Amino acid sequence: MIRHAVQALAVTCVLALAAPAVAAPSTVPPIVYKQRTLANGLQVYESLDRTTPNVTVQVWYGVGSKNDPVGRSGFAHLFEHMMFKATRDLPAESFDRLTEDVGGLNNASTNDDFTNYYEVVPASHLQRLIWAEAERMGSLVIDEANFKSERDVVKEELRQRVLASPYGRLFALYLPQATYTTHPYHRPGIGSIEELDAATIDDVRAFHETYYRPDDAALIVVGNYDEAELNAWIDKYLAPLKNPAKPMPRVTVTEPPRVKPGVYDGYGPNVPLPAVAITWLGVKASDPDAPALKVLDAVLSGGKSSRLYDALVYDKQIAAEIYSNADLPAQPGNFAVGAILASGHTIAEGEAALLAQVQRLRDAPPTAAELDSAKTQLIAGKLRERETIDGRGFALGYALRVDGDAAKANTELADLQAVTAADVQRVARKYLEPNLRMTIRYRPESERPKGEAAAKAPEPPKMVTTYTGPVFTLAPEGQRQAPPPVGTPITPVLPKPAEKTLANGLRVIVAHSSDLPLVSADLTIKTGGWADPAGLSGVAGMTADMLTEGTKTRSARAIARQTEALGANLESGAGLESSSVTLNMMPDKLATGMAIMADVARNPAFAADELERDRAQTLDGLRVAYQEPGQISAAAAAPVVFAGTPFGHVPAGTPGSIARLKPADLAALHAAWYRPDNAVLVMTGDITPEQGFALAEKTFGGWARPAAPLPPPPAIAPQGKPRAIVIDLPGTGQAAVNLAKPGIARSDPDYYPGIVANTLLGGGYSSRLNLEIRVKRGLSYGASSALSANRTTGSFRAAAQTKNETAPQVLDLIVEQMTALGATPASADELTARKANLVGSYGRNLATTGGLANTLGALALYGVPLDEITRYTTRVEAVTPAQVQAFAARVLDPAKASVIIAGDAKTFAAALKAKRPDVEVIPVSELDLDKPSLRK
Questions:
Q1: Stretch 769-774: mean pLDDT
Q2: Which of 509, 516, 793, 824 has the most crowded Cβ, counting Cβ within 10 A?
Q3: Strand, coil or helix: what is 797?
Q4: Cα gap 468→422, rounded to integer Å
Q5: How far apart are CA 32 and CA 28, in angstroms?
Q6: Mean pLDDT of the region 54-71
């Protein structure tokens, strides 16, 4: 790698070295990049990586939600969707053909200050993507059909993320509206249905002409490419683009300072627990105080050892969740703290407790240990961000658009390290003045004072602008410019795992997969929710959750402090099939982290007081989940599909079962199943097999194997008939529609035809379900399906969320597509494209330490040889149309699937009953997922 800065003509090679880390000797490698600016103002950033077969192409425009026209909130976000439609030479959805269909991905996001579009593709397709980005910057087709379709999709996204989520209104609507009075940051980025409906085609065209121009764009390319070729393509396709004659409008409004405290009361339907947020006006990202505010944020809420978690969640137990956020955008932002209160606790308690912790930092600086831990966590987070080429592109783009300088992606690390404890106290005193706070109180609609009506938003203007500029249309097929040719493919280099079995039976797998200083360790226990005692769902799940809540020699607080001081992520959990403990951290102190990991896995205490804390948090989490359509419908799938089998319950538990758990239940399951001969340890990343085996022996070699033989896992053979269930959530903003049924075993000979069939049906943006439900009809933000292959019997579920009234229509479309897949062979072109999508996704997953560890652990769990990763592509590509059709007819028959819909039943139940007379409507207040009837 280049180690020095060189200037030559108009091209600058930028390299900023991070300052040595105090608490984390594993430093974050800087992003080495070159930068130039074209004559038309377009900025170009390129960063070479020869270790990957892929490349990411990103375009970051300096337009975000703050630029929405008055009366058109959500406009920048709406336009983000429009950019995936047609251009003069590309039909609508062509970006999916150029990315997904060749094994890549594409997406976009809208921020207050920017909108970014990004793709990851095999490097041989780089020229095509540069050309395509020039196409949509210079000749986007904006017509009524595409505009109305995408507006409908955005409205469904709003319903799903904001109106159907119990706390969506709080974070997306009320918090910005209460925090700002004048600056456009006060408008919700996702907009409102009323203002979206009021938008016209002229509004949209004028917005594109105004902001989507070369001098407001930055191209970022990271990955494997030839530098001369890349620059020639940029000069050929992007350099000729012209800017509009009129100057770029900029937001110059400033938010006036607060002069007194304020209170904002917000309400929402289906709010199970009250919440409170407190905000103060803050600074912009480039302010000298920004690094200290980031460290302050980490001290307050960075992990379980943070002040807010320790005080409000762990000690006082008055909050189910806490958060803080240093929101540092391109213009002055805000600092916030908040909590979702635990059952039985009030907003007043929460506000007082939050303010008390803020005051502590105003009165005295954080301790040296707190400061080091906060910095280490922040730096480790930056390291994880750089594990992928798109993550590095994001770091450059974010620094450019928010900090105003791409070099900040590298110098930020030194800025964080320079923060002192006194700096943290100083910014707390400077910005978090109690008498300048805004308190947002969020309660269920039922608590709104009698006679008080919800404030009505002003009627949006009918037209914002009249557009007189150029209008592009899709050229006739024979007159379109063809995409550039595909280059020479780069063969990926796959990691080569090594393995050994320790004397106690623990299987250890190590794969050196990266020189980035990051390691993932994953301990899989081959036992999950199927081992729960009858009538006591959630034992395996709670056992896994409690592993990190105290051992025989470490308290829960000690575990949190020690792991977070290392910059490590230590997590544990369980599903129906298995349980796991995972560790992700820098390698310089891996031995210390592995010792903690082994301790929590081998020696949990299951203390009664810790169980009570975890129980209360879990019950509060279930209260929230039971009010969210997607979560509660997904939770109902296992009891419906696998009724009468060890899989036939909710692995996370239910309100009834969690309340009955005892420490002895957890200890018994742990003693029976957490044993070395029932476990697999996988280590990946910057670690050699020799290092990994030595660490495994040191930390897990003393784990004694019980004398009793290991019982075999049960065979899962569901026999129940399909059911049609509606879970009634009155007032919820959307319905979640699911079709669920038994699937296949991982050992099924048709496993590969199965995963290809599922990818055709619901895997990715270009799947049949998403095309029919989202793209063609705008009925959902996204429709998908998942085929989970387990040891004996897996599961299948197709799902989409839609406005309540269209739930029966979406159900019909899912059934229609499942039926068609088994009735007619897929075309060769469709099959080729979806196979490429599957292979590309698999390869990108192997490129991260966590993804590789998960993949190798799953192969070991299911008894598949580890070299399957080298045969995956060949086996996927060998699948034929006839095999896909046969699998779909055998396994994906919708007539054998159960229907589960959660939503406001009064809006769709009658129409559904006309089609499904067997439908059962169960009010959520009467739901009991522990009982076969699902009723209390």
A1: 97
A2: 509
A3: strand
A4: 57
A5: 12
A6: 96
